[in-house]
Fold this sequence. Notes:
Elements: E1 5-9, H1 13-25, E2 29-34, H2 37-46, E3 52-56, E4 58-59, E5 62-63, H3 65-74, E6 77-82, E7 98-100, H4 105-115
Parallel strand pairs: 1-2, 1-3, 3-6, 6-7
Antiparallel strand pairs: 4-5
Amino acid sequence: MREVRVLVVEDEPMVALDFAAILQDEGYEVIGPARSIDHALDIIGRQPRLDHALVDIHLQGRTVEPVAEALQRRGVGFAFVTGSGQEAIPERFRDAPLVQKPCRVAELLKALEHSRRH
């Protein structure tokens, strides 16, 4: 059985490390973390296979809409993580799962599972 590969897009180093540890403990292969939009787009363009992504809605003060668009074009399911509310998500991506920071492990894993159907 192949490992499920999850891209972590998060600019806060400690949060990114927490997400990576949670995912690795659950048996996922973590790609990244990508700490900027450009870094995330580079990873998305270079990786032959991505299964899912956890994407912070704001990276370095910028919205991650270009990252969500690139993931959508590749057919990669994603969930947003944010300290802001639902209103922070661009309208056309509001059907993507959302996890509020700080989050519990169960919430993060549930959003990731739901991203498979997104």
